[in-house]
Design a protein that fits this description.
Low-confidence stretches: none
Mean pLDDT: 88
Order of helices and strands: H
Radius of gyration: 38 Å
Distance between the termini: 129 Å
Shape: rod-shaped
Helix content: over 70%
Length: 89
């Protein structure tokens, strides 16, 4: 029985195939890590924007409620002054 011979051309072909496979693996890993990083960062940025928006909205609501309460108190006070005065012309 004769053992198969591996010449330099056969060795070079196997090396090129292994190099191509590892290159594609590195490329696929890089793309995967990039997409994953993009998704994580996008999610974090959206969370930060939502938190800032909610805080701003809450502050605006409180300010509007405070102003409305002051105006209501003013109207009640004016009503009391009107009732306390005798004749209004």
């Amino acid at each position: 029985m004769i053992a198969p011979s591996f010449d330099n051309a056969d060795r070079g072909t196997r090396w090129k195939a292994a190099f191509r496979t590892s290159s594609l693996l590195v490329l696929a890993t890089g793309i995967f890590v990039s997409v994953l990083g993009y998704a994580l960062i996008t999610n974090k940025v959206r969370q930060d924007i939502k938190i800032r928006f909610d805080a701003l909205a809450d502050r605006q609501v409180r300010q509007i409620q405070d102003r409305l309460e002051r105006h209501i108190q003013t109207v009640h006070s004016l009503g009391g002054l009107f009732d306390a005065s005798g004749v209004v012309s």
